[in-house]
Amino acid sequence: MAKRNVIVELVHTRKLENNMMAAMSGQGLALDADATPRLGSLDYDLSFPALALPKLVRGEYPKDELYDVFASVTFDSSPEASTYLVRGTVEEGDIPALNDAASRNRAVANIYADTTIETMAVCPSSPPVGSDADVERLLCTTLMRQRQMDGSGVLVAIVDTGVNMAYLNSRGKTPTFDAARSWSWNPAAVTPGSAPVGHGTMCAYDVCIAAPRCTLLDIALLHGISATPGSSLMSGLLSDAIRAYSHLLAVMTAPRRPGENRSLVVSNSWGMFHPSWDFPVDHPGNYSDNPNHPFNRIVATLERSGADIVFAAGNCGADCPDGRCSQPPGSPAVTTRAIYGANSSPSVTCVAGVDTTKARAGYSSVGPGRLTDRKPDICGYTHFRGSGVYSSDGGTSAACPVISGVLGAIRSQRPYNAADSTTSPAAIRNLVTSTAVDLGPSGYDFQHGYGVIDGCKIVERVAGRPIVIDPCRRLPWLCELCRRYPWICKGLPGWPPKPWPGPGPKAADSAMTDPAQSQEVWQMFDGEDPSEEIPQETLAYVLGLLAGQRTAEAVKPEHPCSCSSKA
Amino acid sequence: MSKAPCSIRWQHGQPSLQAVREQFGLAPEEIDEQFGVVAVDPEAHLYCVLLDEAAIVRIHGGDPAAAALLEGPFANPVIEPFNLKGHS
Prior knowledge:
By secondary structure, chain A is of the alpha/beta class. Chain A has helices spanning 14-24, 95-104, 132-139, 141-146, 165-170, 199-207, 238-253, 294-304, 395-413, 425-434, 455-463, 471-474, 476-484, 486-489, 510-513, 515-521, 536-555, 560-566; strands spanning 3-10, 43-44, 51-53, 55-60, 72-76, 83-91, 108-113, 155-160, 176-177, 183-184, 215-220, 236-237, 264-268, 270-271, 308-312, 349-354, 378-381. Chain B has helices at residues 17-24, 53-61, 64-69, and strands spanning 3-9, 38-41, 46-52, 70-71, 78-81.
């Protein structure tokens, strides 16, 4: 039978008071079992010492308002007046007997349920959780760059409100910008690369977290036209997106210069917010659920040509849906099957949002998707302090370009090649989802997809494990010598050896868990051919030399001037 | 009058605006020239144009051979960024 956690409130006794005081002074962090009454089958938690609860002396609340902030409340914090909280577990079936025993025992003031508590989901008004530096660390970007996974030679198209390159540069992001292959819904209104700083610039910044050396294409699609009730200032029509994708298709299929990478990543942090914006589902011209809609068709065509297309899942998560998920405003939000049209296409990577603690953002739309059930595919990081365009780079808007940047980094090492199926967009999607860290219920789920992206594991798959030579396995006699006479080996780089822990997120002990740093420990060995024999004479000579240097340092006089005066 | 996306099937490469006008008997103002003819899936001979809704109705009610080449109107919903501005 299941056990239930309970909190027991006990009246003051000297033993409880002493237990509480000992815990507060750090002298005793365990419950004094002798201080607690026996209550049926209640099993006290001995690791939880008594906790004083001051007595409420006076509470004057305005009439019918128990939680008014202007209420007048005073407490008596003296040990004698306080009650004491302890906790324990009881079999679910024994709860009535426990209540009965407690009601008959004058030492017990009350019994409460001790429910499981969880962190609140990140919502729009929440402050940023971490920064882009944390996202870099979580994505293992240091290791990526060591392996030349930095977006070099890869086109990344930001399909959004337009990018401001000067702003990006001022924030330390210096990707290449390709004006010739950029596009604007109206070149007279928006010059690609010089758009007002806004949503598109944030997206470009977040791409550069993992792909700082990519080549950006500014596809300025969204602009201020909408008359839709509840819509935001920047918007567009899906027909504009068809034009934009036609341009990208031309970019992708155009002849390339010799040696030029054929890779294109397309980042889309936009979409539809409510079904009422679309034709009804049973209408043959419907967009959301209809793979034959021209936009859904051109998305599939662009993917077939080799482009990696990434879409944000949307911000209609049930915990705190965007206001636009309610039409008319104020009505209940549509939060189920809220990943519409191309955002849920089987040809794209659909991105949900988690914060830098890997907790799902409350606004992140959940699946199933409209065109494909298994959407979203993966979680990207969002709601962090990053571009400075907003207080936080938030929404699934930020999670999407974070993933796009990782795809850009992958493409530096695995460019698209029509003749090689392992480089197809589907293969890259599979790489990203199969290496993800599972979140939520085991396996795929509609809140997190396959989990949160794991840059470390992706590096391992794409670039292989770093060559780590263990000198103690190769030359056990040398290690034995060093263990016995550590002063001899003190000068050897990489000594004492630290085991490489394998890729994984940085934990408290960064030196041992950050693979990038661990790799530096082994830098002198990196790239060595393990089969190559090192002449023992050479090693003996080096060790002797080091030993001689140590000895010379040990006997070197501290004041050479006095020596010379003696001479 | 508002224009809506339509798909057209065209067997012999990407058609010009003029060829589309002639095929479907369209007046110049009934097709969005700025949008033009967009290749949606060239391998499937599929292209997209923006047409007046009245013209679409007329085509569907006219010559069956021409009507069979045209699919639509399709929805042209507003799209917006997934920023945090719209939260209430």
